[in-house]
Design a protein that fits this description.
Arc Repressor Mutant, subunit A; elongated; alpha+beta; two-stranded antiparallel sheet; two-stranded antiparallel ribbon; 3 domains; 6 strands
């Protein structure tokens, strides 16, 4: 697909490809703000194909592929703290980056080196404190799982819970996820029991006739 003849549509596509929302892209393309029209234009088949084409060309230009992105996410998602630490003779851990590979380094989000003096007078000594932080493993694993179709973006449960957005799971703590899972299991069980009770009552009513 070549550049769209409609200049506003082309600008809209370029802005969407650059990460703008539909509303923002609509205004930047030269239209007056209108959320409904922006949403309708964004879902147009012509627009969607053009945006995919722009993103595809940009990705190819810098050598980005689905396989490469998944590989990078895997380095984060399956990183292990043991790859960066060793245990001394007394069993206490210490950092050891001497054999750090490029793949292991890809999972590092932050490394901080702090030099300071500790103690006073004759007891003063130089101290170096090194801290490191791994990138968000949970977010990486969720992204991988979603690409592989392991998760659904929407979980529909009958009752008061309604529709739950699974993308919010990455923002929950382990305790919150455990609580949500327990509630979901209870609601599912109650829903199943309700169906069984309803079926039993129906059968009893039929026997009376």
């Amino acid at each position: 697909m070549a550049v769209l003849k409609n200049q506003k549509w082309e600008r809209f596509c370029q802005e969407i490809a650059n990460g703008k929302t539909g509303d923002e892209a609509y205004v930047l393309a030269g239209y007056k703000e209108n959320r409904h029209n922006a949403s309708r234009l964004k879902t147009s088949e012509t627009i969607a194909k053009r945006v995919d084409e722009i993103l595809g060309k940009a990705a190819n230009k810098v050598g980005i592929s689905i396989e490469r992105v998944l590989s990078e996410l895997a380095l984060i998602g399956f990183a292990n703290m043991a790859d960066y630490m060793r245990a001394g003779g007394d069993g206490d851990p210490y950092l050891d980056f001497s054999k750090l590979t490029r793949a292991q380094a890809a999972a590092l989000a932050e490394v901080t080196v702090e030099d300071f003096k500790e103690g006073r007078g004759k007891t003063v000594r130089d101290v170096r404190r090194i801290k490191f932080k791994l990138a968000d493993k949970r977010a990486a694993l969720i992204d991988i799982g979603r690409h592989l179709g392991m998760f659904k973006d929407k979980i529909e449960v009958s009752g008061a819970v309604g529709i739950y957005d699974a993308t919010k799971l990455q923002h929950l703590s382990d305790a919150e996820i455990t609580t949500f899972a327990a509630i979901l299991a209870r609601l599912t069980q109650e829903s199943s029991s309700s169906v069984n009770d309803s079926g039993g009552n129906s059968a009893a009513g039929g026997s009376k006739d």
